[in-house]
Design a protein that fits this description.
WH-like_DNA-bd_sf; 3-stranded antiparallel sheet; Helix-turn-helix domain-containing protein; mainly alpha; 53% helix; 129 residues; elongated; Arc Repressor Mutant, subunit A; WH_DNA-bd_sf
Amino acid sequence: MDKINNLSNKKKAQLYRDNYKNWKEYGLENNGFFIIFNGILEHKKLKKISGNALRLYIYLGIYSKNMTGEVWHSNQRIAEYFGKSERTIRGWMKELEDINLIKRMRLEYDGEPHVFLQPYDQGKTRKKD
């Protein structure tokens, strides 16, 4: 820690950039991940969503299949994870569905509910760094 404290701010900033870059590259190559595109900001979805529904959205994204966006965790399982009631989870799900971030359905009568993450506008393309 003393070595970092003795560095100039420019050198510290470069160290922080490199550290983040290495962390991100390793994670993308070796771990599961969930992408949230800039469009969630540009189209005001982030302004419309409560903190708890956003936490649920991230949870669903992490557990979804990467190429289909499908999640089949029960409300009970999700409620246990968050330490909340199933009714609370249903409310958060409804909020996500109301702003078109998810679609819920049962594939069979009385079957397990499936959640499908829904595409949204990805937003403006950023300039290359």
